[in-house]
Design a protein that fits this description.
This protein is an alpha+beta fold. It is 18% helix and 28% strand.
Amino acid sequence: MIFHVEEKISPRRLDVYLNEKISDRSRSHVQKLISDGLITVNGANVKASFKLTGGEKIFIHEVDAAEVDYLPENLPLNVIYEDGDLIVVNKARGMTVHPAETVKSGTLVNALLYHCKDLSGINGVKRPGIVHRLDKDTSGVMVVAKNDAAHISLAAQIKDKIATRTYLAIVHGVLTDNAGIITGAIGRDKFDRKKMAITPDGKPAVTEFKVLERFENFTYVECKLQTGRTHQIRVHMTAIGHPLLGDVKYTSRKNPFDISGQALHSHTLSLIHPSTNEHMNFTAPLPDDMKKILEVLGYSLVPSS
């Protein structure tokens, strides 16, 4: 994969520049690729601190796909939209997005490799096409890039807040404010590395919320991300005393309903098409498990006439 650096930019470190362009990879990961000699500038190996001034050609050497055993799998895939540049899917709750050391099959990536063959290579063979992620037990709309140009465009839109995402959630307790903004930098929990937490050295994170309906012990809310940190909505809602229903990682509160995982759904995604510049809106309908919970709570999903 090749990046052509814009002409006459302000001097910028190589690792910083690539971290901005590939928004869902950490700077430390980029630095490792550089130190391993997998990233070159104008054909030469350089350090992460190498200063780009404009006009350089950056080449990221991809791992040979034959070295990795992540195989296409004929798994159910709910496709909302697809063209030559991107594919938008409604991910099912319980499906992991991409393979990892402990999960090498049954993922969204395995399904995508079977369905459409061509995916962008920016994230290598483990995460082909993945521009942004959803937690395993979060359902809903996701966009996947089919080529590198589309990937760069979509990642930049998410980073620059051009692409917008809204989520629907059911949380414990009754929120008193009709709407609000939650802020708090998010990083690894120092006591449990498998969890995230609001920490002084975390990355800035902002979540907007709006109450859709209040019940006796729960609240139905809409959340809009201004940033996209790992577990952001789950951490922020827990921080204000209203953890997500079913979220066993962040609360020990009793879940009286039949739902496997947190009651969180990626509902809408708006973006600019990377080739046509058309403004596009996608919606994934609320899954049955959350519908049933709302019905039990007394909420009507169909407006009265």
